[in-house]
Write a structure and sequence with these properties.
Strand content: 5-15%
Radius of gyration: 27 Å
Length: 591
């Protein structure tokens, strides 16, 4: 009954304060923030149902653009121009993005120490709906309230209580101090006196609750507030190129980009002091923050999964049932460790001082007893956990020669030059390739004696409607990777009977066509070539901003791709430089 009274009270409190309901329009330059923009972050307020035009903002899902924040993309919302041509300017960005589910989990963890809810049997986000595009629905809003209720109840009843309440609740100022202290962290800015008073009104609910019940109601209200769920950017100070983010808004951008979570005490102190307004100040914080590997590594891993298209529905996520007679060293038990190896590999390169070329040239591998034999290693020397090893440099340069990729982009009994080559062309070089016509799936290999999978693919893709893409763009890099079998082991003899042929004319760009003979030659060209570097830089900018590629962001893409060719320029250097664009500390209003 007590919780029911608080839910009713919170509903009436929201209505009384005219909280964040209705459509939110982007204020004009210099205008005061309008009611309902989330400035007040009133307790238990209804969700924002609108948002400014433009793409999703940094580190969160747009109210109108949905799950298009860090690690996603959305519609252009007024952004125009070729992504290959630099046009100086600040792209339009959503004014009020909301946290993605993983960010929600991270924020609850860092604020309250909660990683698993007993009442949910999983992380806090297990009570939320899946990330989605568009306005916040009633179902999603109810899920946020349910999650807030569960978190508040378990925190107040458990050992994490002191993460919220650090004083004796019977003391006269304890509740007020708690509201101000926790609210500052959860809302990423100091609370106004009006906000504090609105939360304190929960003391006046009748019949009166105990101090513990009141505190639980306050925590619930804060976690259900749009000021926690959303990441509003509503500062109105202008600069020539746009509207300046406040130091508190910059702190939130930094934290949700580099850590996927709320700012820490140091970042909060800098925001309160107003010392996050210049590029130099932002850069100094970014350099500090990337040293926290535990917080930064998951964000870097999320990017590289997106970059390599490691997601549900892709070939990576499809468990290929490889022929056990042809490939006795492969078992389904290898799937989990070979996929875990990809995360470990990307983290090793990122935090081991690696640069872009190391993604394609590092011979570091992570194996266990289920994958060792696929690399020609003795399974008896390894246990269930992944072990870092150095593989033969000539045969195992970079992530595209790891068994996770090679076995995923293959068939049951044979490798797949088409799948492997298309991945390199599309995902690594950024080549736009139209999907094949529906009838392509029904194409049959003419009868004949094909001693290699390469020869079979050449014949299968020889018709005019196929050759345009396959002969010049898709097949050649795939042929080079015929060095590896369907399960990713090194092979010199094709399962069809003849020796494999890995020499091909690979088109890296219209002006860069080279004869490639070995995987090492292919990976060296990918790791040092301008085409792959620019695509990598583009993917990072898209990931960090949530914006589709556009002419304004092309300026930063060009700058980063040039820096990737500089000796000693690491992936961590790129992360900090992503915070140096004008668009990181400024915003403009969409159409």
């Amino acid at each position: 009954m007590m919780k029911q009274r608080y839910w009713v009270a919170l509903g009436s409190l929201s209505a009384a304060l005219g909280a964040c309901s209705g459509e939110v329009a982007a204020p004009p330059h210099g205008a005061a923030a309008t009611a309902g923009t989330g400035t007040g972050g009133t307790a238990g307020a209804p969700p924002v149902s609108g948002g400014s035009a433009g793409t999703a903002g940094l580190a969160g899902s747009s109210v109108t653009g949905g799950a298009a924040g860090t690690g996603g993309s959305s519609g252009s919302g007024g952004i125009a121009g070729s992504p290959d041509v630099c046009v100086p300017g600040v792209p339009a960005t959503s004014q009020i993005p909301r946290m993605k589910n993983q960010q929600y989990d991270n924020a609850v963890r860092d604020l309250l120490g909660v990683t698993t809810l007993q009442g949910a049997g999983g992380p806090p986000s297990s009570l939320l709906v899946a990330d989605f595009d568009g306005s916040l629905t009633d179902i999603a809003w109810n899920a946020y309230q349910r999650a807030a209720d569960t978190i508040a109840s378990e925190v107040m009843a458990g050992t994490n209580r002191t993460r919220f309440v650090a004083c004796e609740l019977s003391a006269p100022s304890c509740l007020t101090d708690t509201i101000r202290a926790f609210g500052r962290k959860a809302f990423r800015r100091p609370l106004t006196d009006t906000e504090v008073a609105s939360f304190e009104r929960l003391k006046d609910v009748t019949p009166a609750g105990t101090p513990e019940e009141i505190a639980e109601g306050v925590l619930f209200a804060m976690l259900a507030s749009p000021s926690f769920i959303m990441l509003p950017e509503i500062g109105q100070e202008t600069e020539t190129a746009g509207i300046k983010l406040t130091s508190h808004e910059v702190a939130a951008r930094l934290a949700f980009f580099l850590w996927g979570s709320v700012p820490d005490d140091i970042l909060n102190a800098a925001a309160d002091a107003g010392t996050l307004t210049t590029k130099e100040q932002i850069f100094a914080q970014a350099q500090r923050m990337i040293q926290d590997r535990a917080k930064t590594a998951p964000v870097a891993a999320a990017f590289h999964r997106a970059y390599a298209d490691i997601r549900p529905g892709s070939h990576w996520a499809t468990v290929v049932e490889h022929d056990p007679v042809l490939f006795p060293n492969y078992t389904p038990a290898a799937v989990e460790p070979m996929m875990a190896e990809m995360d470990a590999f990307f983290e090793d390169v990122t935090f081991g001082g690696g640069d872009f070329s190391d993604l394609f040239l590092s011979n570091v591998g992570f194996v266990n007893r289920d994958t060792a034999a696929l690399y020609g290693l003795d399974p008896a020397a390894y246990g269930a956990e992944l072990t870092r090893v150095e593989l033969p440099a000539a045969d195992r340069p970079g992530f595209l020669t790891r068994v996770g990729f090679l076995s995923s982009y293959s068939a049951e009994k044979a490798s797949s030059p088409i799948l492997r080559g298309a991945f390199i062309a599309r995902k690594i070089l950024g080549v736009v390739i139209e999907d094949p016509p529906p009838e392509a799936a029904e194409a049959e290999l003419p009868p004949g004696d094909y001693g290699t999978e390469r020869l079979a693919v050449e014949v299968l893709t020889a018709p005019n409607q196929c050759a345009g893409c396959h002969a010049f763009t898709i097949n050649p890099p795939g042929f080079v990777l015929e060095r590896y079998s369907s399960v990713g082991s090194v092979q010199t003899l094709d399962p069809r009977g003849d020796p494999v042929d890995t020499t091909a004319e690979v088109v890296f760009s219209e002006t860069n066509i080279k004869t490639i003979t070995t995987p090492l030659e292919l990976m060296t060209e990918l790791g040092t070539g301008a085409e792959a570097k620019r695509n990598y830089a583009q993917q990072w900018v898209t990931f960090a901003t949530g914006r589709v590629p556009n002419s304004n962001d092309a300026c930063q893409v060009n700058d980063l791709s040039t820096k990737l060719s500089t000796d000693g320029y690491t992936i961590l250097n790129l992360l900090t430089d992503l915070t140096q664009a004008d668009s990181f500390r400024l915003r403009t209003v969409g159409n």
